[in-house]
Amino acid sequence: MDKVAVIGVGLMGGSLALCFKDKPGIRVAGYDINPLELEKSMKRGVIDVACASLEEAVDGADFIFLCVPVGLLEQYLDRLLQISLKPGCIISDVGSTKASIAHYAASRVLPGVYFIGGHPMAGSERSGVEAATSLLYENAFYVLTPDETTPEDIYDRLAALLKHTKAHIVRVEPQRHDRIVGAVSHLPHVIAVALVNQIARYNEEDGLYESLAAGGFRDITRIASGHPYMWRDILLNNRDELLRLLRDWNAGISKFTDLLETSDGEGVYREFESAGAFRSKLPERRKGMIIALYDVYVDVPDHPGIIGQIATLLGDQRINLSNIQIIESRADVPGVLRLSFRNETDMDAAIGLLKKSNYKVQL
Ligand SMILES: NC(=O)C1=CN([C@@H]2O[C@H](COP(=O)(O)OP(=O)(O)OC[C@H]3O[C@@H](n4cnc5c(N)ncnc54)[C@H](O)[C@@H]3O)[C@@H](O)[C@H]2O)C=CC1
Ligand SMILES: O=C(O)C(=O)Cc1ccc(O)cc1
Question: Boundaries of each ACT domain copy (predicted)?
């Protein structure tokens, strides 16, 4: 029987635990600083046993996953090294940055135990064990950062366990990880937050901003709702990369300012043209760092209770809706509902069901 200890049973830790829970030969122990979160984990059946201390959780563990904010990883590693762990135990983490923890672990002597950094590249703006799901990592990339001292069989043992997540395991060197993830995840989060705060300032003068920001603006800035504590730690941890990226970002924005100052329409055209060309090459519908919402538009007759009917139709088939929104509703014309799903499977099942019930569905 393999014992897996999950430290920090929130969105990521809870989702990992759910992937391992009830798999033959695996027992999942959880520890969290917040007893309420542990209680919820037990109630939801996310873990087999809730532990009152780190020591209890890791006692005899074959695998330990640190699923706490990035700023706590080093102190947790230190605490683990003071506990007598099971020989051969593999410690990993799910932190969004990899260079600093890899460097820290490499400078510590881990007698008979191994550290391999990890980053499942899927998540959401939500946090806490309530948002955890065993489907979170399916088809996503899961980065592991072994170093040259990591024995191959130890890496293979961790990779084999992580097969339960149904993610694609990839080996990446930690600095390269932080450079790329800084650009495709951390920078977009900073931009989304700055943009939302800019609009919030304008809205103080004129409340119409808020009304008109519904829909598209709200969607493209979803990531601005990430957990402040978690993002503070990520940005400070990847500070050097982000400073470089923000300098580049400023240069890109200055270029637009120049183009507009000189009314250079051709230049603006070229910017959109090259962005469109690169964007069209990006893999479509592949699960990436920033999750896509899978949206479906449904024409609906304008009568009371229609939202409830559709929600019930999907709910009865256990299809999870992540959002439902009326896009258009006027007394004289049929309305359009936008249904958002978290994954393609739910979206496809919903389309089939709605079509069978004679709804007109568009993507
Ligand atoms: N949220 C996301 O989309 C993703 C997050 N990550 C990484 O996963 C890690 C965890 O993030 P989430 O699960 O999203 O956050 P979360 O807030 O849902 O879960 C974190 C859990 O850690 C617990 N915790 C906090 N301090 C603790 C301590 N001192 N000792 C024990 N437990 C403690 C909290 O009570 C909470 O249950 C972070 O390092 C983050 O960078 C990685 C990929 C995606
Ligand atoms: O909300 C989203 O789509 C995200 O971008 C989630 C996320 C947050 C942190 C990560 O390290 C990876 C993924």
Answer: 295-363
